[in-house]
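Reproducibility note. Readers wishing to regenerate the assembly model reported in the main text can use the exact inputs given here. Chain order matters: entities are listed in the order in which they were concatenated for prediction.
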Amino acid sequence: MRYIDEFRRPESVERLLALIRNRSRTPVRLMEFCGGHTHAVFRFGLRQLLPETVSLLAGPGCPVCVTSPTDLDRAIAMSRIKGVTLATFGDMLRVPGSDGTLQEAKAEGADVRIVYSTLDALGIARANADREVVFLGVGFETTAPSVAAAILTAQQEGLKNFSILSLHKLTPPAMRAILDAGEVRLSGILGPGHVTTIIGADAWRFLARDYGISCAVAGFEPIDILLAVRALVENIEKQSPEVVNAYMRSVRPGGNPQAQSYVDRVFHVAATEWRGLGSVPMSGLFLRDAFAGFDATLRFPVHIEPGKEPPGCLCGEVLRGRVEPTDCPLFCDLCSPEHPIGPCMVSSEGACAAHMLYGEA
Amino acid sequence: MPKDTILLAHGSGGRMTHELVRDIFLQHLGNPLLDTQDDAAVWTLPRACPERIALTTDSYVVSPIFFPGGDIGKLAVCGTVNDLAMVGATPLYLTAGFILEEGLPLEVLYRVVASMAEAGREAEVEIAAGDTKVVERGGVDRMFITTAGVGEVPEGVCISGANVKPGDVAILSGPVGQHGIAVMSQRDGLQFSFPLQSDCAPLQGLVAEMLKTGRPIHGLRDPTRGGLATTLNEIAGQSRVGIEIEEERVPVSEEVRAACELLGLDPLYVANEGKLVAFVPPEVEVAVLEAMRRHRYGKEATVIGRATSAHPGRVVIKTTFGAHRVLDMLSGAQLPRIC
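Running the prediction on these inputs yields the following structure tokens for the assembly.
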């Protein structure tokens, strides 16, 4: 298969591994920000293949996982309002809030529907004029442009029964929050490939400038990831921190200006709550006043107590890179993909799910 | 072909039910047992005293009911036949219960039943008894089918998911993932199409070829829901053996790989309806493999790994790059209502 096989060729993987082995002297700890990377690393068994000097650590880049329990509780409460149809991505249904999940609300009669894109939610709104369709929008910079486009479309069509609960988040402020907390010592960051396709590689310059840490933006195939690891090892050995674009076929220095302008037209940036990181300044996307008519929080105000984390769950620590999923006392025995307690076990991008699904033999 | 729709009266047991039975079911599925229209089918077993009988049951709720390469009727026949074949039984008779939604066009039922008849002919089974119920609109999604199947287990055949021994070779009959992706590509909300057909097929002929070699077959299973990964985990658990497979040896077609990449699925977890995985002692590998490759549904049969005494109950996959990782059972639902 073109564009896939080239990036999975065993000979190329072996050659890159040899280059990394030969160059790596200083032990390094690299955080893969993105949950997609964590899954690829496990699926292809890359941790086992890298030399002992290179260790990889999962980061907070799973939008489902970082959704705060309070926000989930709000979504669940909205789904229970008479006349509301709540549309969202499949993973969100199983994430536990303080008391239950969207899946449980659905079983009790709430109209919760799984969609593959925001446009599907728009379609539901068009086809069901008697329902109030609320799209529960989770995601990073990658998802936000399509949500912005859907809102602009709804506005153009004069669609009155469509609104969104925006839980969209920005990744650079989260990276800053992790580094500022100083809980984990990191030598380099594998930058999120799809997010950076939108925001541009230049958006990560602050890592080298302010923190003296290298960042290599990576794609999601084994060769992509190893190219980025190799670039990081090289920069660390040379002691010259910089931002490297190791995903040239998708990422540009300035990103995708059209997508950025959509997001900027529809959303403004403010502090928001992340599971594991708490409130992070300038990291949430909220609808601008001009689009207040599409803001589900204004149209369906619900009273929500501050949410509670599941007792004993270490998802917050996992998301900050403080512990590995296997360090959590609930892992596997009490918390599993069938009976998840924390969100990192639910999401297809969650680190705990990756450990369970692709555990090293 | 009838142009009307199913009414609640078609399930009343009265004249309309009888017309439906006569015009659709008996027309397509008719055979001496069904034609008697008694409350139960009565027959003499083909041999004076067969040692063992295999019995199975299954329900079919696939959505949509027509998909590339098959439909709910063909699936019901093949699925039931395959369940019998996986214990080495020669399928003899099936039963079929239909739950129909009020308003279903008769033409749809006609097509499904005709397709069952065709699949039955290929699988060399007859439908010996049947039942029809009609429920209000919304009570079911168009139609559900429940089947039972009986088969005769030939003497000396002892195949079970619990019989696999360390050292046994795992043979897969062909590329995986076609059925799940073919059904998925027809679902609402997914605007893509692949030139891809379900692999839905009756496997009793393939199993018969394998048994004809006279060589022992320890375990057989068709990797349906949950895909190959789930089936291997079931066998590892039942037989208390470890299983090791090599990723690059598992055949996956380009179309399935491409669809899985797009949808974020792993082909090892996608359903099949016309594939089997066999565990045989290493000394009979060549003979069984050759027999399989002679049959139309086993042309691409290949060895994918083996059972081991290490890590009992666990399946381990060697990735293309030589790393080893656990291949776990499917968690949750990868695709809704595929069979």
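We highlight two features of this model. Chain B is about 30% helix and 20% strand. Residues 106-123 of chain B form the longest helix (18 residues).
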